[in-house]
Amino acid sequence: MAASSSPSICSRNPGMAALVAAVLLPALLVGSAATRAPPFSCGPSSPSKGLPFCNTKLPAAQRAADLVSRMTPAEKASQLGDIAPGVPRLGVPAYKWWNEALHGVAISGKGIHMDKGAVRSATSFPQVLLTAASFNDNLWFRIGQATGKEARAFYNIGQAEGLTMWSPNVNIFRDPRWGRGQETPGEDPAVASRYAAAFVRGIQGSSSNTRSVPAVLQTSACCKHATAYDLDDWKGVSRYSFKATVTAQDLADTFNPPFRSCVVEGKASCVMCAYTSVNGVPSCANADLLTKTFRTSWGLDGYVAADCDAVAIMRNSQFYRPTAEDTVAATLKAGLDIDCGPYIQQYATAAIQKGKLTQQDVDKAVKNLFTTRMRLGHFDGDPKANVYGNLGAAHICTPEHKNLALEAALDGIVLLKNTAGVLPLKRGAVASAAVIGHNANDVLALLGNYWGPPCAPTTPLQGIQGYVKNVKFLAGCNKAACNVATMPQAAMLASSSDAVILFMGLSQEQESEGKDRTTLLLPGNQQSLITAVANAAKRPVILVLLTGGPVDITFAQSNPKIGAILWAGYPGQAGGLAIAKVLFGEKNPSGKLPVTWYPEEYTKIPMTDMRMRAAGGYPGRTYRFYSGKTVYKFGYGLSYSKFSQRLVTSRKNLAHNSSLLAAGRTAMTEDKASYHVDHIGDKVCEQLKFPAVVKVKNHGPMDGKHTALMFLRWPNVTDGRPVRQLVGFQSRHLKAGEKANLRFEVSPCEHFSRVRKDGRKVIDKGSHFLKVGKHELEISFGA
């Protein structure tokens, strides 16, 4: 979401207890209020009937231009905030732009209403970081589809005042302490890019995970927060005033690729600019970013939104321009179209009167906004007659969507440790179970942030109760902070139980929007409680971690009395059932970590140091550039089965490719050691692609899914080359004993290229190494 300029999200929303009482509990009830039709324009009785902007045969941009040409300057300026008033004389209804759909339709914005009306809940999928652990872009697409369908259904029944969803968050999870890392697809630009495209296609209504764009958008997706935003509030440094220094190299190969994929591959109809000031220029006033990059280079067909109150913050906290009018002018001229907040609405007219802004600047922004609303079908007459007109209350929280939420949680859960086959437990063989931990029976622990009231939540305790008759529960800690712990009682319960399962981890009090961590250790007395329980138990205990970001659990990793460890993220409404299915072997875990888990010593590095690459005593960030000690590596994840994998390709030498040689004279770099990718050209890049196959076998004993991650490494890491870089991922469900070939398409222009210090992409001549697991193949490139 667009974040508030307040210290925390809670200052704009009811207190959590009140929210649960007013929204979450009624979600379990069936609403009885009647639905109402959404407002629309260009109907039979509309004053605009017959005008060109109501002509559905015309292009959306042409229709929007006609509408804007009929508006007064005051009416135009009024449209430049997230709460846009109607224009009754033209039959234009009011509209609310700020709506959220991070992992299901959420209540964090201003346009979705689940506190009243016939439907009080929506399908709550796992928080994004756990979904990313599935490494399954088809799953990401289907979650987007389901979320978009439910959002449109809410709109059709009159419980939504907008269809512009300010999701997904595709920022790179650069630092493990970042409170909003849970919202992202992780630390890898390739994963984040594929997630971005898949989710956007799904939520906007594409029929398949391709580049196709529907004639009428199901909803409008907005990829946020561009760019280089990954600090909220760390040791007194606030996102509102943080001035990030970012190299051209890091922008080009780390921070910007997911946003490019959103627009170029996913065809997102919006990009949101961040609070961050990058290299001295606030993102929402950066013409190179908003206009030159988003629109000219990437071809954005849509609008650019500011994070909430970002324009006011630019004036009042960043002091970028001397007056409100100067600030508003700087943003609109740079390419911003709408403010989340009223600041531009308040000062745009004065900015024009003072000669700092032109009416054409305002018109351009308003046209972009109405073009998006045209594409959503808001000016096509009664929405019940369009392609989404049949969607209603019956399409929210459907059995299909509930099953999808379960599938997503099952596929994301990561098995981190399983000593001597402690897991899976055998159903019927566990006479009694002790379930201990503050996260075991808390619905909010399933949801993370940016949630909507779930329609069928199952806590971990409830999930286990479905498999074991004799279950005893003890919270152990008063909350995630665990400043009060009942260790003697927990140890006594553990000593008298056949199996002990601990549900520990974090909550939104430790990691959230507006709150970064200063430590990677479990909070308060959690480690002591876990250790005391493990020491008292009859046999090795099972530790399940519900967290967004990574934690340093070295103590548990090395403790033989802790037999198994699972990371379950914030697993959504079906999380409790999914965890139980994994624990009892009904699901063979297949998730892989989408982030590096660092030791506590990593917190010595300032969050404010934005450098990705190692330098001197600076260790670098993420698996691509960090080669120091880890608790768990990116891509780590165990299975109950043993899988083998081997990489093969029929093309190991690209040295004498005639197409490359023909293009070589113009593509060669100054030092003759590399080729400029942009000079090679699309045609030759397409010709250079070749297949690679990963041969996989499931050696048993269980059926299960295997995900193969293919990496590239260079012969050295000089000049900022990554230690390794993800090429792609493929997965397949295999029966015990079954074999399969997973086919990858390798594109040297995309996968063999690296970014130089000047931000340009090149492919080095010579050896490159494709790697899957411990097996690698050398590929020679160039003459």
Topology record:
Elements: H1 16-24, H2 60-69, H3 73-78, E1 83-84, E2 95-96, H4 128-132, H5 137-156, E3 164-165, H6 189-204, E4 220-221, E5 223-226, E6 233-234, E7 237-238, E8 243-244, H7 248-255, H8 257-264, E9 270-273, E10 277-278, E11 281-282, H9 287-297, E12 303-306, H10 310-316, H11 324-334, H12 343-353, H13 359-375, H14 399-412, E13 414-418, E14 432-436, H15 460-465, E15 470-474, H16 487-495, E16 499-505, H17 526-536, E17 541-546, H18 554-557, E18 562-567, H19 575-583, H20 622-625, E19 643-648, E20 653-654, H21 658-667, E21 674-676, H22 677-680, H23 682-688, E22 690-698, E23 704-713, E24 725-734, E25 739-746, H24 748-752, E26 753-755, E27 761-764, E28 766-772, E29 775-781
Parallel strand pairs: 3-4, 5-9, 8-10, 9-12, 14-15, 14-16, 16-17, 17-18, 20-29
Antiparallel strand pairs: 1-2, 6-7, 10-11, 13-18, 19-22, 21-27, 22-25, 23-24, 23-28, 26-27, 28-29
